[in-house]
Design brief:
Blueprint lengths: L17 E13 L3 E8 L2 E8 L4 H9 L5 E10 L14 E12 L16 H6 L1 H4 L3 H23 L3 E2 L17 E3 L7 E3 L5 H9 L4 E9 L11 E10 L3 H23 L2 E2 L6 E3 H8 L13 E2 L1 H4 L5 H8 L3 E7 L7 H13 L6 E5 L4 E2 L8 H11 L6 E7 L1 H18 L7 E2 L1 E5 L4 E4 L4 E4 L30 E6 L2 E8 L4 H10 L4 H14 L7 E6 L1 H9 L29 H6 L10
Parallel strand pairs: 3-5, 6-9, 11-18, 12-19
Antiparallel strand pairs: 1-2, 1-4, 2-3, 4-5, 7-8, 9-10, 10-24, 13-14, 14-17, 15-16, 15-17, 19-22, 20-21, 22-23, 23-24
This protein binds one RNA strand of 77 nucleotides through strand 1, strand 2, strand 3 and helix 2.
Length: 596
RNA sequence: GGGGGCGUGGUGUAGUUGGUUAACAUGUCGGCCUGUCAAGCCGGAGAUCGCGGGUUCGAGUCCCGUCGCUCCCGCCA
């Protein structure tokens, strides 16, 4: 090693020791005959004093040194003079008096500050990611990520799980997200796909008899990005045999509770409730307008259809008559919102599909609302009571089809929560959402599609909705599927799988996949199920999202060493980039004329 | 594919209803300086205001297009 100690470890106990340090020059303070260097390595910062009176050579070398130079220093640890300790620094009691200073490598002036936590344009950070990663924020986040992954591995190994790698080059399947595909050189015109998740492979590992499998798995989806979505991301992929839903839920709940509590000293994040509450999908949609509700605050959505449906206000009565809903939320203390603020909220609601937004402010005198004149005293009183409006509160009401009402009020709830700062940033509100529908209707393709994926089991009592016959009604079938949600982020999802060939065939039939197509695309799965597949199920929590939440970051790029931009490019390497004609030829690929 | 936001010395920002030489902080370079720790003091350099076009006597400012970054909708089994 080029160093005997790390910069961060030196304390008063080391006083008198000869040490050799190596690291980056964090800051330099030149007093003429005396130069102070703050030397930084991964473990911390220590002050090096280069005194011309002590070593002319070290002092002369320090005069040439600049920020981010890589240097090696030999010297003696000594106590700082009386009253000159720096309480801001863990090493602040001491300093290293340099006897020798060697520049291992000079550095150009960095394009942005490394020694200050000043905001920098993200494009610049990504272009010079290796410099960005030197900064304390990214060092902290990536080290936290390592601790989290390490905790997860320990937890699962203690419970007899086996970590098994699965291939990155696999077969493309039409279901789900758009695949990243890789051309085959050996087989002209054929392609591999990168896994959207190791879903089928982990199920086959259950057929193989491993019973408890996990993997910290990279997954790839060629879809547009979001703050919580990257084209490649990492999942804790996990599968167990001979389990039912609650076995998976209890395993993961134990993992997350233990993880959060272990990490609390450095994250400052604490659980809002344990054990985790459970909501059915229906409840979540009805009460929070979302299948990933932020439960750090209340502001539940209240059903007013029975109160306002019969009213003389045409919008309400017409909506109720058409099978729609009238629902509202209470925005505490917003009764004094100006016309302008109300207009903003109305525009917000309309952008999300509402035809309009009805508001109702309770004042000390009574009620102020554009629709007050259409409502009877009784209807008004019952609305106020149902919404629990206190004087000074604002009620926001939407009338529409249930999906629109949920969408709009769910978003409005989050928006009001933000405005009123109702969510505690240091609180983690985990919640299970269970009993998802097995299918959702795809409007554009006019067919049923799997809400989770086509290997998800229906609830035992719901298989009848898939059987051709009088009970056939796929929309009614609920799945043995579950999501773990935290602070409004979907942190993971899973299900109990189908393990019988007849049930899998039924599933494909409802999805409109013919037996021939099923054979071509999933033949290996169907065949495997004929060789003694155990009942099994699993879950796949997203590591990036989990780490981001624990790190207090609002974007998963902050917990990924080398992320892509929102346009799925890598500003550091320039990927994606053109390739040579020779490479294309080898792969039997011909570009369209306007795209080459 | 659609909508919103941002783009001004290396970095972070200011720049009024269009009006003289584009301002501030910090960094950077040079000088002075032996107890600083965001060191201090003095001096210097550094911007075709993302790019292209238009309106105008005059554009950082207004309009159109375009590029980049970002957030959201669609999409994400």
């Amino acid at each position: 090693m080029l160093k005997t100690h790390t910069c961060g470890e030196l304390r008063a106990q080391h006083i008198g020791q000869e040490v050799t340090l190596a690291g980056w020059v964090h800051r330099r303070r030149d007093h003429g005959g005396l130069i102070f260097l703050d030397l930084r390595d991964r473990w911390g910062i220590v002050q090096v004093v280069c005194d011309a009176a002590l070593s002319v050579a070290a002092h002369r070398a320090a005069e040439e040194v600049r920020g981010e130079y890589v240097i090696r220093v030999q010297g003696t640890v000594r106590a700082r003079p009386e009253g000159l300790a720096n309480p801001e620094l863990p090493t602040g009691e001491i300093e290293v008096a340099a006897t020798e200073l060697e520049v291992l490598n000079p550095a150009r002036t960095p394009p942005f500050y490394i020694n200050e936590d000043q905001p920098v344009d993200e494009a610049l950070r990504l272009r010079y990611r290796y410099l960005d990663l030197r900064r304390p924020r990214m060092q902290r986040n990536l080290i936290l990520r390592d601790k989290i992954v390490s905790y997860i591995r320990d937890y699962l190994h203690e419970r007899d799980f086996v970590e098994i790698e699965t291939p990155i080059l696999i077969k493309s399947t039409p279901e789900g997200a758009r695949d990243y595909i890789v051309p085959s050189r050996v087989h002209p015109g054929r392609f591999y796909a990168l896994p959207q998740s190791p879903q089928q492979l982990k199920q086959l590992l259950m057929v193989a008899g491993f019973e408890r499998y996990f993997q910290i798995a990279r997954c790839f989806r060629d879809e547009d990005l979001r703050a919580d979505r990257q084209p490649e991301f990492t999942q804790l992929d996990l599968e167990m045999s001979f389990v039912d839903r609650d076995d998976i839920l209890e395993l993961i709940e134990g993992l997350f509770i233990g993880l959060v509590e272990r990490m609390e000293p450095e994250t400052g994040k604490r659980l809002k409730t344990k054990p985790f509450p459970r909501l059915t999908y229906e409840e979540a949609m009805a009460r929070y307008g979302s299948d990933k509700p932020d439960l750090r605050f209340g502001m539940e959505i209240i059903d007013l259809t029975d109160v306002l449906g019969p009213s003389d206000f045409r919008v309400f009565s017409a909506t109720a008559a058409a099978g729609g809903q009238i629902k509202g939320i209470r925005a505490p203390g917003c009764g004094s919102y100006s016309r302008r603020q109300i207009d903003e909220l109305t525009a917000f609601a309309q952008q999300r599909g509402a035809k309009g937004l009805v508001w109702l402010a309770r004042t000390s005198e009574g009620v102020r609302s554009p629709i007050a004149k259409f409502l009877s005293t009784d209807e008004l009183d019952r609305t106020i009571e149902r919404l629990a409006l206190e004087p000074g509160d604002l009620g926001l009401i939407v009338a529409d089809q249930p999906s629109v009402v949920a969408q709009v009020l769910g978003q409005l709830r989050l928006e009001m929560g933000r405005r009123l700062k109702l969510a505690d940033p240091d609180e983690l509100a985990f919640v299970w959402v269970v009993d998802f529908p097995l299918y959702e209707w795809d409007e554009t393709e006019e067919r049923w599609s799997a809400m989770h994926h086509p290997f998800t089991s229906a609830r035992d009592e719901d298989w009848k909705y898939l059987q051709p016959g009088p009970d056939y009604d796929p929309g009614k079938a609920k799945a043995k599927a579950y999501d773990i949600v935290c602070n409004g982020w979907e942190v993971g999802g899973g299900s109990i799988r189908i393990h019988r060939r007849d049930q899998q065939a039924l599933m494909f039939q409802v999805l409109g996949i013919t037996p021939e197509e099923a054979q071509a695309q999933f033949g290996h799965m169907l065949e495997a199920f004929e060789y003694g597949a155990p009942p099994h199920g699993g879950i796949a929590p997203g590591i990036d999202r989990l780490v981001a939440i624990l790190a207090g970051e609002h974007n998963i790029r902050e917990v990924i060493a080398f992320p892509k931009t929102a346009q799925a490019t890598d500003l550091m390497t320039g990927a994606p980039s053109p390739v040579s004609q020779r490479q294309l030829d080898e792969l039997h690929i011909c570009l369209k004329p306007d795209e080459s």
